[in-house]
Design a protein that fits this description.
Strand order of the largest sheet: 1-4
Order of helices and strands: EEEEHHHHHHHHHHEEHHHHHHHHHHHH
Helix content: 55-70%
Number of helices: 22
Distance between the termini: 71 Å
Length: 646
């Protein structure tokens, strides 16, 4: 529980509605250079006139009724506050404007003038307090305009007295400009403390939510009234819309500080942050207000020292919710596996809801958090523990593969789809994650995909191993042997089906890669010796045909690894060539294309050609070294690093 902060009542706002200094002259600006009218037809006397009679008939020149001079009291009654002010200023000038100061014989008049000024001040203050009731008819725009002009006129008179050398009346300076500001400030506080806007009865709200919403609705209603109506009662230079906006902003801020000073429930914490970062700025950006109010100058409703604890509370709760939900999703998947259940199939493919459910929650929570805290980087903290969830997912998959139950393969195939979904969101929606978290999760997912591929392909390779052993032997040069291997590959590949299409294609590509690695590894073991040009040419044709057949088979099975065919083709060329320079060029070409080709690989390949001397092999290896020094390894695909040679 935090302690209550000190008073934060707004103060210090001053309405700057006097355009320059000067004497009592009312020329220019808002008054258009004219003194206010002092002659009106009193209420109830419309149409009543005193008419001179001639021969029983009105005189033609007297047909129009004369203007009647209103008294101070009558002006007050009609809410002609500017005119009432002018009458008092005239009396003030008569009593105090002479060169000699007023003597005792005017004391009674002075006292009466002071009393009338107090009455007028009370009327003006009352009118100002009804500024935001124009829509309710409690005061007219004419009366408010007159009150504002009276304040303006009084301030002009204050300025005039500052320029004189004589002693001013006791009520000078009048300070009615300050009275105007303090009255409006008090008015705003009262309206925010006692909002008149009805609550949303159809929504269950906490007391904090209800209170803040009521204040927000009152603020919106009043600012719209200021912009649409009250503004017309003030001269443009007063900037009355921004003056009211600052009063409401400071008052609203003060009330929210008091709320934030105490420990809030999680729901209220989220609500308060949403108001500060989203609802309130959005309200001020509405077209009706944005053109009149400079919201940038207002700043935040709550200071940093109050916002940070609220943000920490909100983000921590969101983190915990995400981890709790993620754990529950993984636990449900484990339970189904333990119960012997297989994942459901969609279009013949095994699918798991794990990734979809977690991704939906992450996307929703982070997107909402950006709005609530108003900062994307802060919102990303929600996923800061996601790496732990990915590790848990990997541990679960490892256990599934280790125990190898009847439903394990189906689960791993479904998991491949999950891995792809997670990778896609980490790659394409990186704004949801802190960069370090994203990178760590991607590494875990890469490990999961590779281990899943190994698990699914290991049995297939086990079945094919007897045929792999014959590669590179004398039997290998017989065509039927390789055709049998191709048939077995096609048959065993049926066991790999069941994951979603894109994941199955990746698995087949990996299968294609591993079969090619196995082929090259068996060839480089050197069990067959190619003694002359004829045998070497036959080996060239065999490898070339094998490369073509293997490529065609895997393309039919949806592999996109066309580059693997190039490896076998280049190896075949080395076997065929007889001239040392030509062999050097071909090996250099192979090394440039695949920089993980080592001297050991080249030595094993050249040893198949028994007609090459040790010095020739050394020369070729030196050529490879020169080629590799000029080759960039960065973008090259690894292949020979997976081919183990002695």
């Amino acid at each position: 529980m935090r302690t209550r902060s000190g008073s934060t009542e707004p103060d210090g706002i001053r309405l700057n509605f006097l355009p320059g200094q000067g004497g009592r002259s009312l020329g220019g600006g808002w008054f258009k250079g004219k003194l206010p009218k002092l002659f009106r037809t009193p209420r109830g006397q419309e149409g009543v006139s005193v008419v001179a009679m001639t021969d029983g008939h009105p005189s033609p020149k007297d047909e129009q009724p004369p203007n009647v001079i209103l008294t101070f009291e009558q002006n007050l009654e009609e809410n002609y506050l500017l005119e009432a002010s002018d009458l008092l200023i005239q009396r003030e000038e008569r009593l105090f404007g002479e060169i000699t100061e007023a003597d005792g014989q005017h004391e009674e008049e002075i006292n009466k003038l002071a009393a009338d000024r107090r009455v007028l001040e009370s009327h003006i203050q009352q009118t100002l307090r009804q500024s935001l009731s124009l829509d309710a008819g409690k005061v007219s725009t004419e009366a408010l305009t007159s009150a504002v002009k009276a304040v303006y006129q009084e301030d002009k008179q204050d300025q005039l007295w500052r320029q004189r050398d004589r002693t001013p009346p006791g009520w000078r300076p009048s300070g009615w400009k300050e009275l105007h500001s303090t009255t409006l400030r008090s008015l705003v506080k009262d309206r925010m403390d006692n909002p008149s806007t009805p609550p949303d009865n159809h929504v269950k709200q906490s007391s904090v939510e209800a209170h803040v919403c009521s204040m927000g609705r009152q603020l919106k209603k009043d600012l719209l009234l200021v912009v649409n109506v009250v503004k017309t009662c003030y001269p443009p230079e007063t900037d009355i819309c921004n003056f009211y906006a600052k009063l409401y902003h400071q008052t609203f801020s003060s009330r929210l500080r008091k709320i934030a000073d105490f420990g809030l429930e999680d729901k209220d914490c989220t609500f308060l942050l949403s108001w500060v970062n989203d609802h309130y700025p959005g309200l001020l950006r509405k077209p009706e207000l944005a053109g009149e109010i400079n919201s940038e100058d207002l700043g935040k409703l709550l200071p940093k020292e109050l916002m940070e604890p609220l943000e920490e509370q909100y983000l921590s709760k969101q983190q915990n919710e995400l981890m709790t939900y993620t754990d529950r999703v993984l636990e449900e998947a484990k339970q189904k596996w333990n119960n012997g259940e297989e994942p459901i199939r969609e279009d013949g493919c095994y699918v798991s809801p794990v990734a979809y459910d977690i991704i939906q929650l992450i996307n929703g929570m982070v997107t909402s958090a950006v709005i609530v805290v108003g900062d994307r980087h802060k919102a990303q903290k929600i996923t800061c523990k996601l790496n732990g969830s990915m590790q848990s997912f990997k541990i679960f998959q490892d256990e599934v593969m280790k125990q190898n139950r009847p439903n394990s393969k189906a689960i791993i195939k479904a998991n491949l789809g999950c891995v792809e979904q997670f990778r896609e969101v980490l790659d394409k929606r990186g704004h949801l994650f802190l960069e370090g978290v994203r990178e760590n999760c991607l590494r875990v997912l890469t490990d999961m995909k590779e281990s899943a591929h190994t698990y699914l392909l290991s049995r297939v390779h086990e079945v094919l191993k007897p045929q792999y052993r014959k590669l590179g032997t004398s039997d290998w040069l017989n065509k039927p042997l390789f055709e049998k291997l191709l048939a077995s590959i096609q048959t065993e590949s049926q066991e790999l089906q069941g994951s979603k299409e894109s994941c199955h294609q990746e698995l087949i590509c990996q299968f294609h890669h591993e079969v090619t690695v196995e082929y090259v590894k068996r060839l480089l073991k050197g069990e067959v010796k190619l003694k002359d040009k004829q045998q070497q040419h036959k080996a060239y044709m065999t490898v070339k045909d094998n490369a073509e057949s293997l490529h065609n088979l895997f393309v039919k099975m949806s592999s996109k690894e066309d580059w693997l065919k190039e490896i076998l083709t280049k190896i075949a060329e080395v076997l065929k060539l007889q001239e040392l320079p030509a062999i050097q060029m071909q090996v250099a070409s192979l090394g440039s294309a695949f920089p993980d080709l080592s001297e050991k690989h080249v030595s094993a390949l050249l040893k198949l050609k028994t007609n090459l001397s040790r010095n020739d092999r050394k020369t070729v290896k030196e050529t490879l070294s020169d080629a590799l020094r000029e080759t960039s390894v960065g973008s090259a695909r690894p292949f020979f690093s997976k081919v183990q040679v002695k």
